[in-house]
Amino acid sequence: MGRAPCCDKARVKKGPWSPEEDRKLKEYIHKNGTGGNWIALPHKAGLKRCGKSCRLRWLNYLRPNIKHGDFSDDEDRIICNLFATIGSRWSIIAAQLPGRTDNDIKNYWNTKLKKKLMHSLQPYTTHNHHSFTVSSAAAAVTSPEAAPIMSLQHLSSPHDYYHLYSGGGSYGSSNSTTSLLSAAVGSRGLLLNGEQQATTCLDSGGGHAIYFDEPCATTISSSVHGHGLGAETFIFGGLQSQEDHHHHKVLLLAGSGTANQLDEQYNFAASCCYDEEKAPPSLSLTGGADGAGGTSSSFFYDSTYSEDTATRRQRELVPNKASSCIN
DNA sequence: AAGTTACACAACCGCGGACCT
DNA sequence: CAGGTCCGCGGTTGTGTAACT
User: What's the pLDDT score for residue A79?
Assistant: First the structure.
């Protein structure tokens, strides 16, 4: 047996609300509240509308303190981060943005923000020694089930990125969108480990973001900040600029936490150098809080890589919880 | 100027789950 | 506990308008 309709669809008005209808609804709710019953409300308010339509109109447009349009950069970041973290749970995202509605955010995402991010996902060539491309990214945004979503297709000079995983893992349908978005965020983003769930950063500096999952993240983070981040740590690397032929300056951000722990994230800046002429390449990280590139502690990370270790690492890696950071 | 296309936003629809009886 | 009702959510569609040809 099907469910009873919430209203007599033949007798309710549909389509855009007139100013008169808005006035009636506003007046009624100001006087009486919603009464906890949207189905009965339109009749009481003298509206020939479905209760659901009234609810939507009120929540999205008529209730006080609603903001429309002009999303700020901060709001963009919050939306991106949360989307990458929890997916398309617009109501939860909206709860973090006072005055914004889930519908508004959803529309904004679908019409603007997603495109903005995808625009930044053009295949990226860093240097003639460091070129790689990402495939399937655009398709995957619109077709989340397409897996593998991203893979590191080509490393013209593989040792340059030995410390990075190539992707190619299959995404489960439940997190594929999230994972993809992780890659999409940033001025130019790559999610290099296909096994990961959300890992996202906004690279406001206009740099070329490279996302690499790093099994030694715990070591790195602990060394810099003394935080025991554990398996939920991730590292974000954004290739900011090339200093010279041998060195690449990388802004790294580390964060930890789950979807409910976004406020616990922290980051650090580090310079990252790897010397093409030495094997194995190494990262020199000089960390400081808040992306300031301080020098409170430093260490080296040996990023030796081989096909076998890559496979092993992927297998051993504990799937990251959703993590997020903002540069 | 008219027609077409693209875009942004508003609104609708159906489903899952909470709540009530 | 089962069935009915309603709310809230997210996906989708509809509509108005700006941009383009």
Answer: 84
Tell me: do A152 and A267 sit in the same domain: yes
Asked if residue A161 is part of any domain, the answer here is yes
- The residue lying closest to nucleotide C16, measuring its CA against C1', is A16
Q: Which of A179, A133, A132 is nearest to A159 (CA)?
A: A132
Continuous segment of H or E residues that includes residue A219: helix A217-225
- Same domain membership, residue A274 and residue A146: yes
Residue (of A74, A152, A92, A77) closest to A324 by Cα position: A77
A295 domain residue, yes or no: yes
CA of A16 to C1' of B1 (A): 29
Question: What CATH number corresponds to the domain at position A26?
Answer: 1.10.10.60
* Strand C nearby residues, CB < 7 A: A 1, 3-4, 6, 15-16, 36-40, 51-52, 55-56, 88-92, 102-103, 106-107, 110
- Tokens 């398709």 sit at which residue? A139
Lookup: tokens for A106: 């959803």
State residue A28's pLDDT score: 85
Quote the number of domains for chain A. 2
Considering the domain architecture, whether residues A201 and A286 belong to the same structural domain is answered as yes
A272 touches A246 (CB < 8 A): no
Structure tokens at A55: 């609810």
Split chain A (327 residues) into runs of 10 and give each run's mean pLDDT. Answer: 50 81 85 79 83 86 80 83 80 84 85 72 34 26 26 25 24 27 29 29 29 28 23 27 28 28 27 32 28 24 28 25 23
**For A315 and B17, how far is CA from C1' in angstroms?**
37
| Same structural domain, A317 and A171 | yes
Single-letter residue type at A22: D
How high is the pLDDT of residue A204?
A: 27
A326 with A199: CB under 8 angstroms?
no
CA angle A31, A34, A36 (to 5 degrees): 140
Domain membership of residue A53 as a residue range:
15-62
Query: How far does the CA of A242 sit from the C1' of B5, in Å?
Result: 42
Closest C1' nucleotide to A54's CA:
B11
